[in-house]
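TL;DR need structure tokens for one chain.
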Amino acid sequence: MDEQYDVIVLGTGLTECILSGLLSVEGKKVLHMDRNDYYGGDSASLNLTQLYRKFRPGQEAPTDLGRDRDYAVDLIPKFIIASGELTKILVHTDVTRYLEFKQIAGSFVYRDGKISKVPSTEMEAVKSPLMGLFEKRRAKKFFEFLQGWKDDDPATHQGIDLDKDSMKTVYEKFGLEPGTQDFIGHAMALYLDDDYITKPARPTYDRIVLYTSSMARYGKSPYIYPLYGLGELPQSFARLSAIYGGTYMLDKQIDQIVTDAEGNFVGVTSGGETVKAKQVIGDPSYFGAGASSQGGKVRVVEHGRVVRAICILKHPIPNTDDSDSCQIIIPQNQVNRRNDIYVAMVSATHNVCAKDIYVAIVSTIVETDNPHHEIVPGLNLLGPIHEQFLTVTPLYTPTSDGSADNIFVTRSYDATSHFETVVEDVQDVWKRVVGSDLVLKKREVEVQE
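>> reply
TL;DR here they are.
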């Protein structure tokens, strides 16, 4: 392995695969390695055998769940926002040709002990039990204000400055009730907690516009999802990288990350061989305490654990109009918490499980010493649970930007229900590795595969 690479990428999570794909397109010589024998790292989709091997070593998957190959169960529940940044990258890099998407049937919100659909049309909004008649009028004015907003036309501002006034001020201006604020902030702007209310309104405005434009794109919900599971996403970017000369090695144990006397990155040792490169990018598991000689490269973020329960059901979630897929948001103050609880469900129509099986994942940020207890409000909505796999994962973030030693660490996948923060991390790492902002260039050549 005497070859010198520009970049070695460790781990095949979505963040790492997007980066290796984009760096390969840019003309960089990329070597991509993963200790697992499957793509996707923490963002993989597993078949039944892999799922049981991971969570219940030594136990066979029950035969009543059907064929192993019918399953692609996500480890991390996320949907793609139709008009979001990930969609732009997918379209721009032409990775969409390796993927097929299906819409998520509905987005729901939990309020006063009941599940209600987040309205996707004006007709649904009029009928929605989420607001009373007068509140609906106020909310209509609020949304008209957002849709009519033009930065360069003060007449559309109604005396509000989005960059200075807090979201609280905006809500109060339109007289919106706490329940409506809750619904807008958590089910549309998709905030995990209420910290946003006292901050300037601009980011919330951007998030609501993103949500409504994504909703308008396909109708029923703002989310799309790849057939055969989220693990298809990293694989598609891996293919992009390979077309442009990237080299992939799965099932490679990383023995050591080699640095020189000053601590600068030199190469990676695997199976007694060292391969050299100018830079390394990797997920936190390759740099955590005890992962190599590189302890101290990552730290756990504040409120830094996520609990997720992967549940296999033999029926759709009750009170969701028998939807074949959905998201349910339980806003934190409905259950006296600091953070929201999310439920994401997909089914056989997405080619991720056998016929008449549904996969629901309940997740939230851990706040106590009893994480399993914290997701009970979400589990209670599912009806009888056939199988359940529980994980509690720490969230890591890099301790340095990598510029000093050419070691660039990505962040763990957070508790948000979509991929926007993943793209933010991609843009952040790209800027640190390449030294300039990520600009999606048109691909010039149609490379022969």
